[in-house]
Amino acid sequence: MSSDRHGSPLDAADDRIVAGRASDGDTAAFAVLVRRYTPMMRAYARRILPGTAEVDDVVQDAFITAWEQLPQLDDPGQVKSWLMRITGRKAIDRIRALRVHADVDAVELPAPERAAPPRQAEARAGIAALSDALQQLPAAQRECWVLRELGGYAYEEIAEELDLSPSTVRGLLARARKDIIVRMEQWR
């Protein structure tokens, strides 16, 4: 098997062809998807997750899920947005797991050395309060809020990622923001 600097012809093929072959069990085609979308998926997971330690695990979990579910993908041409949705869900699931199992006191927050301990404690308490407020939101509101506020996504991008209409996203975000403002009132 010869391989030049440009890779195989599959590397130049469009998503529909590559994903179609991968869904038929072609591991070389799936490897093309992995090479093509790992950087984007890592960047996306990094925007959602609070730290970078979990990013590679989330991307790996997303690809495992994608390999298992690829035969059910209705439109192979939509593989990019499908992979990003899986990555987003895996990242949000990881946040949920971290929030449930992590001791807030064990979370290390970067703070300038000159910051006084009372200010550090106040910052930690504020972050813990925000985390609690986010956990109390319904899942759809929390996902929209995380993608918008932490991920920097536009309404249309969130709608595409979560398979919702843009007007639904706007409503979910409005309710999430209102709820967070009420819960965070003492921190204003």
State the major sheet: none
Note the run of SSEs as H and E. HHHHHHHHH
**CATH fold description of the largest domain:** Rna Polymerase Sigma Factor, Chain: A
CATH class wording of the largest domain: Mainly Alpha
Strand content: under 5%
Separate helix tally = 9
Number of strands: 0
- The termini sit apart by 64 Å
Q: Tell me, rounded to a whole number, the average pLDDT.
A: 80
**Percent helix:** 55-70%
Q: Provide the low-confidence segments as ranges.
A: 1-5, 101-105
- Using only C-alpha atoms, the radius of gyration works out to 20 Å
How would you classify the helix and strand content by structural class?
mainly alpha
Shape: elongated
CATH architecture of the largest domain: Orthogonal Bundle
CATH superfamily of the largest domain: RNA polymerase sigma factor, region 2, helix turn helix motif
Describe the structure.
It contains 9 helices and no strands. It is mainly alpha-helical and 188 residues long. Helix 4 (55-69) crosses helix 5. The longest helix is centred in the middle third of the chain and has 23 residues, at 79-101. The model is unreliable at 1-5 and 101-105 (pLDDT under 50).
Question: What topology does this entry show?
Answer:
Blueprint: H1 9-12, H2 15-23, H3 27-48, H4 55-69, H5 79-101, H6 117-135, H7 139-150, H8 155-162, H9 166-183
Helix pairs in contact: 2-3, 3-4, 3-5, 4-5, 6-9, 7-9, 8-9
